[in-house]
Specification:
single chain, alpha/beta, Rossmann fold, Luciferase, domain 3, 19 helices, 22 strands, about 40% helix
């Protein structure tokens, strides 16, 4: 029997052995797209793993990564996992205090950084990060002025790794074979409400199993092109650029700079993308702004095409006339000509923007989830997109329920599935509180609509803060602050004085739950801030 493919390095080894010349990654550098095959990907991960081993990284250690989305990030991450150590991604724009906290809380031993900017940030922390043994940097530009003994260029580490590979040629393969799906592979920061993020421990096997469920409802394969633009420390970029890419052999493309995203995307012509709501909204705003400067004929064509397309969308159809008149050229301009899968999460997307892209022919769907639950676990089904909902769960094994629902069906969203996190790193108390009999409280208020789709209203605590008195409800809704949901829902949920006690007290009285278990059960968003309904 073949060994289980329950770790990311095992999946990489499978791809490298069976498809060595197939393109796995692309990076645009100095205006030229550079390709990395699965075979080269494996070679570079092996080299980096041997180098980290030389630096003393062992099973259970934590390796930090900070920088832009680059192939080097994925290489460093998988190398860490090969050693049965844990990777922790740090946002490149994180403040010094947050970086210091994460380094110390996770006891990071080695930091893999991109360039001078990140090195300067780490060295600026001085003696506040005693756990760091080495800081390995990829880009040597501007580094000659530093004298810190912890600094090491990646090229030097690679030379050491090559010597070690000659001395022990089977060492890396033995590490990979010994890896287990139960090993915690990724420490992922939550978007929690406290001053410092908690670090969710995500075992490789559970991440892979959850990615497989996602791929079952949103299939991808070796012919697919994905452009990685969202930060790699975020759980959903981990799901796409690491998990799904390794399982489905989806090609991952990295743009040259943030300013070149749209131009680079047009060159690639992605078939799959995941973008934050603000990016979708900016794209829609840019299109409209360009139309204001266009000729009168083009402005008329845009207005007519958009009206025809959106009228057809309201009937659940696509307009061939609008496509010929406007949308086909616009999709090509945006780089969406080949797009088959498009998703958004992390916050609510405005309905006008949603309608615009659906009318355009972009197969956009919303996601909902939390870091602790492997990111998204709900999604709109094809042909069943509703702007006010986040859809249903990937499959029946994912239970999404409403805790202690009121008479209107509103309560706190709770979720349970087999591939959840195993606790918070170095925080046993928070780990015990997070799960009750496998159920995780999301902190979001919501309900199921008549179709069984999940509607996310807002954070429970935020609703309570916005409801100081009952007679204030209608004005809040009028200003768009309460998601447009009927005011009586909030009154029943929190009581006439707007106290936050409603959900918790009701839950304590009996843990009544309202669940929908269809071919799914709820829709995906991501770091626990994906809520945000709108006034109708």
């Amino acid at each position: 029997m073949a060994p289980p493919l329950d770790t990311f390095p095992k999946l990489l080894a499978r791809n490298a052995a069976e498809f060595p010349d197939e393109v796995a990654l692309r990076e645009k550098d100095l205006g030229i797209w550079q390709s990395i095959s699965w075979g080269e990907y494996q070679v570079r991960v092996k080299r980096r793993a041997l180098g980290l081993h030389h630096l003393g990284v062992e099973r259970g250690d934590v390796v930090g990564l900070i920088g832009d989305n680059r192939p080097d990030w994925l290489i460093g991450e998988l190398a860490t996992h090969a050693l049965r150590a844990m990777s922790l991604g740090i946002y490149r724009d994180a403040l010094d205090e947050e970086v210091a906290y994460l380094v110390n809380h996770a006891r990071i031993k080695v930091l893999l950084v991109e360039d001078e900017e990140q090195v300067d940030k780490i060295l600026g922390l001085g003696e506040r990060t005693p756990s760091i043994v080495k800081i390995v940097y990829a880009d040597p530009r501007g580094m000659k002025k530093y004298r810190d003994p912890r600094l090491m260029p990646a090229t030097e580490l690679d030379r050491i790794a090559d010597r070690l590979a000659q001395e022990q040629p089977r060492l890396y393969e033995d590490w990979v074979a010994a890896g287990s799906g139960e090993d915690v592979a990724v420490l992922c920061g939550t978007s929690g409400t406290t001053a410092h993020p908690k670090l969710a421990m995500l075992p490789a096997g559970r991440m892979i199993a959850h990615c497989a469920k996602y791929l079952a409802v949103d299939p991808k394969g070796p012919e697919d092109e994905y452009v990685s633009v969202l930060p790699l420390p975020w759980i959903m970029e981990q799901i796409y650029a690491v998990g799904e890419a390794l399982i489905a052999r989806m090609r991952v493309n990295f743009v040259e700079e943030e300013e070149t995203v749209m131009a680079d995307m047009r060159e690639i012509g992605p078939t799959s993308i995941l973008l934050a709501p603000r990016v979708w909204e900016q794209m829609a705003a840019d299109v409209r702004a360009r139309m204001m400067d266009a000729s009168r004929f083009k402005r008329i064509a845009f207005g007519v095409g958009l009206r025809i397309g959106q009228a057809a969308l309201e009937k659940g159809k696509r307009s061939r006339l609008a496509d010929v008149l406007l949308f086909r050229a616009l999709r090509d301009r945006l780089g969406f000509k080949r797009l088959r899968s498009a998703a958004t999460g992390g916050a609510a997307l405005g309905p006008d923007t949603f309608r615009f892209f659906l009318a355009l022919g972009v197969p956009l769907r919303q996601l909902y989830g939390q870091t602790e639950l492997m990111g998204a676990y709900t999604i709109h089904q094809p042909g069943s997109v509703d702007f006010d909902t986040v859809g249903i769960a990937f499959d029946r094994s994912i239970e999404v329920c409403i805790e202690a629902p009121d008479r209107q069906g509103v309560g706190e969203i709770v979720t349970r599935h087999a591939n959840a996190f195993t606790g918070y790193y170095n925080n046993e108390e928070a780990s015990r509180e997070a799960l009750r009999d496998g159920w995780m409280s999301t902190g979001d208020a919501g309900y199921f609509d008549k179709k069984g789709h999940l509607v996310v209203i807002d954070r429970v605590r935020d609703i309570a803060a916005k409801l100081p008195r009952r007679d204030h409800l209608h004005s809040l809704c009028d200003r768009g602050e309460m998601g447009g949901k009927e005011p009586h829902r909030f009154h029943h949920l929190f009581g006439s004085r707007g106290s936050a006690r409603g959900l918790r007290a009701a839950a304590a009285r009996g843990r009544k739950r309202q669940c929908h278990l269809a071919a799914g059960a709820s829709d995906p968003q991501i770091p626990s801030a994906l809520q945000g309904a709108r006034c109708r």
